[in-house]
Specification:
The complex is a heterotetramer, with two copies of chain A (about 325 residues) and two copies of chain B (about 300 residues).
Chain A: E1 9-11, H1 12-26, E2 30-34, H2 44-49, E3 54-56, H3 61-72, E4 77-83, H4 84-88, H5 92-101, E5 107-111, H6 129-133, E6 140-142, H7 147-159, E7 164-167, E8 172-174, E9 189-192, E10 197-201, H8 205-220, E11 224-228, E12 231-233, H9 237-247, E13 250-257, H10 262-273, E14 278-283, H11 293-299, H12 304-317
Parallel strand pairs in A: 2-3, 2-4, 4-5, 5-7, 6-7, 10-11, 10-13, 13-14
Antiparallel strand pairs in A: 1-8, 6-12, 9-11
Helix pairs in contact in A: 1-7, 3-5, 8-12, 9-10
Chain B: H1 19-40, H2 45-50, H3 52-60, E1 78-81, H4 87-96, H5 137-152, E2 159-164, H6 171-182, E3 188-194, E4 197-198, E5 201-202, H7 203-206, H8 212-218, E6 222-227, H9 231-247, E7 252-257, H10 280-300
Parallel strand pairs in B: 1-2, 2-3, 3-7, 6-7
Antiparallel strand pairs in B: 4-5
Classes of the chains: A alpha/beta (about 325), B alpha/beta (about 300).
Bound molecules: thiamine diphosphate (2 copies) and magnesium ion (MG) (2 copies).
One thiamine diphosphate sits at the interface of chains D and C.
Chain lengths: ~325, ~300, ~325, ~300
């Protein structure tokens, strides 16, 4: 039993910013490119510590992305980060051709993603990146669930070769993974065992899924397996297929459009290997709204109650 | 005592011409900006305040032709806010022009408000011509409108658009500039809010856009550089543009030298106010400063 | 039985170009924006006929897309067309925010899509657009299968309100649909009946699927239902669910990445309604290559033989 | 009699300096372009031929520092083809410089060739620094390399990049220009292939980029305008750039006035040749013209 009141809240972007600093300490080839929001995405920490390895590119996401490629092809390991809406789409052609097709060692941080960026509203609430990024060959796509994991993901991204996109958020979210929890790119973590159904989540819905699973067990004795699918590409087929076989029903939960998102990636694996009923928790084909993160999470049905209800629904279809 | 916020019903007409009138209007707009941002607890104070004088002249000095009672009036001029983050000054201006009730300014950035954090077409707020929020897109939308009016429908409608100075670091903006020159869009007025501030610092340090005037000239624009807080210069620039619209074959760029946070001493020219709202204490101080200024204007009898 | 030797080959882009001309004749508000490849995507036909309603924007996909929005918001119905790689990605942010979020009446033609653009090679062989475009709220996405259908789709796009993206190709492909075949946006066409398995295809693989189905029937008496899913968004749930129920197994075929593509959209519907085994024919997470269209179709396994074999495979999993 | 195509083994060294040498090299490059495109049956003749003279000087006139025997040599200068569609001239040049066997030119655009339709890093062809094909991206990659060499590793490596003139209609290109000026990248040489042709027609008609020099000056470049078919002017422009790299704090832009299809009478200055290969008859005619020119050069004894 997890006691939620003991869990601190820290923004995932802090993990990104700190992770980049750790990398900078370990490797002089780590370079950071700024896109005029270095404070928001916390690469300002790196900038303060390693001013010689920080380059401000201004509001020019296309150029920043492709400059990063030129640096990577010259032996550097550049990180470029902006709001996820602009770090995945304003530069989408550059990501496809110069980053992915070149298989360039470029790392992109997509911050302030999802509806929890809050009052800025729909334009800033990126809910479509996963669909695009997971279709790009050579791309690694990570959506970590809390501060600790984002830090580990960032460090792992900097230490592997090839393009990586890390999607994280703005608001403070429960920091529930431990320092010594294992994090390996491409290997999902099973956070809770169970065979009645599987809940597969990434990003801030992982915590909500854990809470939903706890409610299911406490209220009804239903044992849900909770899987943190932090790496969406390459996807952990093994864990997904096992979940389908063992549990016979899957709920996915993500702060993203349902169409094309993480749940869709899971569905691809499921029907190709072991078809079972699925239910998708996510944004249902609409744009976001201004509001406070918590308000939006519940308005859009990404909270533990929605996941709980989805679990009950899917059990009827088993 | 808790700070109580209310919005007067006062609206202004599009017929101002004295400095006193403009001063009073822009004071009211600045007050609205502070109020709505204080209530919202997030949002962009600096740029909104910095553009208050230009908005006052554009909307209330007989420049932009619009009709709040029938805002979708087919023959209206268009105003496109490309720098979507300074929505608070646009909302204040539209409310004070009578597009919607001023008390709605209290709903800025709240769930289901028509005053979304960035202008949102799907929120159905009268006066909003397009959604905005991704820098650089609005100016191309303005271009599409200017092309429609001048080259397709052949009406005399004018199109005004405001971009930030950080915003013109975006490459798409130069695609727009190139096409505006190429198509001789003399009905397009592009206002660059040149406060030399963007989120990470001074524009000339984050990524220099200078020399701005030379750039726009080389993209075949008429360029007018003004003090963006001097009503005479603003008026005269807009009038020159209106003249250009008839006689010139070039679009007009008004480079307005402004100060971020203009009007509130502790915000002025400080890029940290790009994206911050005032807290209670700051809001109080701001209201006091604006009140003092109001007295001054009255006593000076401009 | 279809006699393939009687089927003419015509490029789908011809249907697009002609469709835009038909629209232009019917409606004076139709405007065309050129992106320096008007001959390739055949909007040159419109330009010749209606020079006053054609505007050359040069090589500036971002600007062209957003100019189109300004025109749409002023009552016009603008078509912008370029190579699909650049009409979906160089302007991805503009498509998301200015086109889709504004729900603007803008029509985008993505030409020269897929590997069949041939010798130009991988950069031009767009295989990722469906994944991105189908995740955008308000967007309608059509991938027609032949010349006739592309023309109908183009006309239907111009006559509906709201953003539409039409994806078509460069090479000549079998023109097998008839002038009077029904085409309705959002309604899939069942081209051949059968209950042993369903083959769902879009674009040029529809013809290959028909041929594969004919082989299955002639060689082995297997009756496959062949579905032309020309509209990928909004997706025809009804036809897909019926196929799952009636046939119990589905093969999808598309000239696109498997990850996030049309097959993935079908999988979302399948697991949410009636889980059955699926097999995906498409590009398997890699970039393209220079070569002749036919060579590439068979090298990448998008041809009738691959579909035939996939059908046999999936029958074993039923 | 069928047209038989073969490629001689001849390679050139990076030590040419006479007009005769450059003429002969560029003739050979043009012949290679015609041959490989004729065999490929698709591809971009016009731009490739138009740039032959500049490639001859850059690669064989002692300007670019490279080592075909060890092409990944760490201290090499970089050449980034941003206008990826003129790959045939790059392939011909690399082959003639000894990066790979000339006979491989016969495989252009064929399945599994290392000579992909557009340069492809994953095809592992020696001399290819990056994939290309989406216009405007290469110049930003060149920028990233120039920043690495000058600002991070502090080596004296130079970076050369070629963009088309239609290509500079892309906004991302102006982001690159702005940053190059901002970072004083004097080690960057940006060559604009100013043939005033693009796919749909004349550049000044499709979307005017003029005045080009003023634009680059306003983006803080040193600008040199040359006749891109005059070896003296090309050499001297490159030498000025090399001087600039040491003494100036600005990047250099060489605006090269060229003719699309240069060298083949029936292709010259005709935008229809942007993306067409010669058919058999056209290839024969082209070879004849090139042969005549070869005789002329020999007899003139330049
Ligand atoms: C394409 C894009 N990139 C980044 C942002 C994030 N952003 C919002 S405002 C801003 C700074 C804009 O600077 P400027 O145009 O000078 O406006 P000012 O700060 O003066 O109000 C940035 C980077 C954005 N909204 N859109
Ligand atoms: C982003 C992008 N848009 C469109 C194209 C298609 N395209 C290839 S070459 C070309 C014309 C380029 O003109 P220019 O740069 O002048 O080259 P030239 O024709 O003179 O060789 C176009 C539009 C592309 N490759 N990339
Ligand atoms: Mg500014
Ligand atoms: Mg050209």
């Amino acid at each position: 039993m997890i006691d939620e009141s003991k869990i601190k809240k820290i923004p995932t972007r802090m993990g990104f910013g700190e992770g980049v600093v750790v990398l900078g300490e370990r490797n002089p080839n780590i370079i950071v490119l700024g896109g005029d929001i270095t404070g928001s995405v916390m690469t300002s920490l790196f900038k303060e510590k390693f001013p010689d390895r920080f380059f401000s590119i201004g509001i020019a996401e296309q150029n920043a992305t492709t400059i990063a490629v030129g640096m990577a092809l010259s032996g550097k390991i550049p990180f470029f980060s902006s709001y996820s809406a602009f770090a995945a789409f304003r530069n989408a052609d550059q990501l496809r051709i110069s980053v992915a097709y070149n298989n360039a060692n470029v790392k992109i941080g997509g911050g302030h993603s999802g509806i929890t960026v809050g009052p800025d509203g729909a334009t800033h609430q990126s809910l479509e990146e996963v669909a695009y990024l997971r279709t790009l060959p050579n791309m690694t796509l990570i959506v970590p669930s809390d501060y600790n994991e984002t830090k580990k993901a960032t460090i792992a991204a900097g230490e592997m070769n090839g393009p990586v996109f890390i999607r994280f958020g703005r608001s403070a979210v429960p920091s529930f993974t431990a320092d010594n929890d294992k994090f390996e790119i491409g290997k999902a973590n099973i956070l809770k065992d169970g065979n009645d159904l599987a809940i597969i989540a990434s990003g801030l819905t992982v915590w909500e899924s854990l809470m939903a699973a706890q409610m299911l067990e406490n209220n009804l004795g239903i044992k849900a397996r909770v899987i943190n699918l932090h790496t969406i590409k390459p996807i952990d087929q093994e864990v997904i297929v096992a979940a389908a076989k063992d549990c016979g029903a899957i709920v996915t939960a993500e702060e993203h459009q349902i169409h094309g998102g993480m749940g869709s990636a899971v569905a691809e694996v499921v029907v190709a290997n072991y078809p079972v009923p699925m239910k998708f928790i996510g944004i249902n084909d609409r744009f976001g709204l201004s509001g406070e993160p918590d308000e939006l999470i519940s308005y859009f049905g990404l909270d533990r109650n929605s996941i709980y209800n989805a679990a009950l629904d899917i059990l009827k279809r088993k | 005592m808790a700070l109580e916020i209310s919005f007067s019903d006062k609206t202004f007409t599009n017929t101002s011409h004295t400095l006193q009138e403009f001063s009073e209007i822009s004071l009211e707009l600045r007050r609205d900006v502070i109020k709505s941002l204080y209530l919202a607890k997030s949002g962009h104070s600096g740029g909104s305040l910095g553009m208050a004088d230009i908005f006052a002249v554009l909307f209330f000095g007989g420049i932009l032709r619009y009709n709040p009672a029938n805002w979708q009036w087919e023959k209206r001029d268009k105003f496109v806010l490309s720098a979507g983050h300074i929505a608070p000054i646009l909302y204040a201006t539209l409310a004070r022009a009578g597009f919607f009730p001023t008390k709605e300014l209290a709903t800025l950035r709240k769930l289901h408000s028509r005053l979304q954090g960035h202008p949102a077409l799907d929120a159905n707020l009268p006066g909003i011509e397009t959604s905005a929020g991704s820098l650089g897109q609005g100016i191309s939308i303005a271009l599409g409108m200017a092309m429609t009016h001048k080259l397709i429908d052949r009406t005399d409608q004018l199109v005004f658009s405001v971009t930030g100075d950080g915003e013109i670091e975006e490459g798409s903006v130069w695609e727009a500039a190139m096409a505006a020159g190429n198509y001789n869009l003399s009905n397009l007025c592009w206002i660059v809010d040149n406060n030399d501030c963007q989120i990470d610092g001074r524009v000339h340090q984050v990524m220099s856009i200078y020399p701005i005037a030379d750039k726009f000239k080389s993209f075949n624009f008429n360029v007018i550089t003004i003090d963006g807080h001097n009503y005479n210069e603003i008026l005269s620039a807009f009038n020159t543009f209106k003249e250009n619209a008839k006689t010139s074959d070039k679009p007009t760029c008004i480079i307005a030298k402004t100060y971020m946070g203009k009007g509130i001493s502790f915000m002025e020219d400080d890029y940290k106010w790009h994206g911050m709202p005032p807290n209670e204490e700051q809001a109080r101080k701001a209201f006091n400063e604006l009140e003092k200024m109001q007295q001054q204007i009255k006593s000076l009898n401009l």
